[in-house]
Amino acid sequence: MTLARRMRDRLSPVRPWFRDSATMSWKADASAGLTNATIVLPQGVAFAIIAGLPPEYGLFTAIIVTVVAAYWGSSRVMVSGPTTAISAVLFASLSGLAPPGSEAYIALALVLTFLVGVLQLAAGLAGLGGLISFISHSVIVGFTAAAAVLIGVSQLGPALGLSGLDGGVLHRLSQLAAKSSDLSFEAMVISAMTLLSLIVSTRLSRRLPSYIVALAVGSLTAIALGAEAAGVQMFAPLDATLPTFQTLDLQIDTIGTLLPAAAAVACVGLLEAISIGKSFAIRRGETYDSNQEMVGQGLSNLTGSFFQCYAGSGSFTRSGLNAESGATSPMSAIFAAGFLSLLLILLAPLVRFVPVPAMASIILYVAWKLINVSEIKHIVATSRSETFILGATFLTGILSGLDFAILVGVIASLSIFLNKSAHPLVAVGAPTEVNGRRVFMNAETFSLPECPQIRFVRVEGPLFFASIEHVEREFRRIEQKDGVKTCILNLKGVGKIDLAGADFILSEARRARARGYDLHLIAANPSVLKVLERLNCLDVLGAGNIHPHKSDAIRPAVEMAEDRVCKSCHIRCFNECALKPRDQTHPRQSVD
């Protein structure tokens, strides 16, 4: 399929899921959409506050971005919209450029969203979906944990009735400690009651509109305490109930300033959406196209930027609820946006009764749920390299900024990946018996006896210009053993070989023959064999020195072994050694 046709298909308004319209359960989709709308109503407000935007912008994002992403995306049940992580990155990126909530700040947020959409759409049309898999999962875990800490610390002041706290995590905590005598009793009671009701209703049923219940409890508590008269801050009425079209101020200087932050937000958004979409597709046995999802996310943010929306992505909470509620197609997300518009019109006048501490406690709960404690423990217990990536991303996010944390995490991931690629495993193997089967294992690690005349070397990893120095150094290290007549080089674990790798094999073949022994290769990968043939390695080695299986290589190597040495050898580790003469005073010890 040509690039032009792929681009046309990805942008076509006629989507593949239309073909199932005859069998769709529209009733189930409508029911799932209504449930989703009740959940996102308070969530949208909370996420907009995290992003430093007026509350209605989170709700607008949950309408426009949700519809476009569902329509052009690849997942049948994923619901997109405002998310905690992107809200935190947006705030961290823009708060130093303009006061949060100001007109200048809102204008920057919309331009940033436009750039995010352009970058995501371009990546999807270019077919770059596979690159996402190169970013370590630990980057997202560390980034999300850092975002959760930043969000949580930012809401401690409002939850406790304190104002005027600003700066980073450490600065905010020091300010909080200095103002501890100014804590508001009413605010703390409202926060505690809201949080308690949220936890209880969430545990009772995931289908309950837990956030709305919690806000109602917080609002009633505020009324009972006379909180507004006591100085507890309440939400201002929404300026608008539905999004409207607005043009953007796309100046070159502004674009240049926002482009690095837009790249970070675009990356975070795609990682969120694709990981969520893939997980649900696997769980439900459905197909999933990462590039199409990138197109859907890009179009949703690009369109949303003209309708008072800020950058959105896939929401795991809303997607999980959507699937559990019986959603069968993207229509469920479209229904959710429609129901949210209706709820927004009906409930907008009630926003002024919601106390700020109640919303702050909900955001604290969301931040806590963001930290995947079990996954962090698993990473720390199983991999030092992934632990380093997680720690570098987390600490950078806390101490420097979330947008920079993504960059540090990606660089750390790529550095470790390149380092591992440049240091493939080079080990001498020897046969042994495991559960009645003859297998080759690392002779050095498991202290296995080796044949005195045959060296069996295995390479696991790419054999290319960056790894040759390491591989050659390992070859010289294991070359200390004398009396070797044949070296068998097992390349079945080599997935990539380039000119430098082929030159190394030729060099080893010439070195072996100059020292009076021979080199045999085990290679079955067609791509590796093709490279070896194209670079004349097969001509130098000879067709008889290339083998598809271990036994095919061991047989001629044993034949070349000196009978004099074999006769006195008591190891006889290969089955083929049975054909060699042996001293009757030594029992046979071959491995079957």
From TrEMBL:
GO BP term, example: transmembrane transport
UniProt keyword annotations, A-Z: Membrane, Transmembrane, Transmembrane helix
GO CC annotation terms, alphabetical: membrane
All copies of domain STAS, residue ranges: 444-557
Residues spanning the membrane: 33-51, 57-74, 81-98, 104-128, 140-163, 183-200, 212-235, 255-274, 327-347, 353-371, 392-418
Listed InterPro entries: SLC26A/SulP_dom, SLC26A/SulP_fam, STAS_dom, STAS_dom_sf
Alphabetized SUPFAM superfamilies for the sequence: SpoIIaa-like (SSF52091)
Localization, UniProt: Membrane
Membrane topology: Multi-pass membrane protein
Record protein name field: Putative sulfate transporterc/MT1781
High-level lineage: Bacteria, Pseudomonadati, Pseudomonadota, Alphaproteobacteria, Rhodobacterales
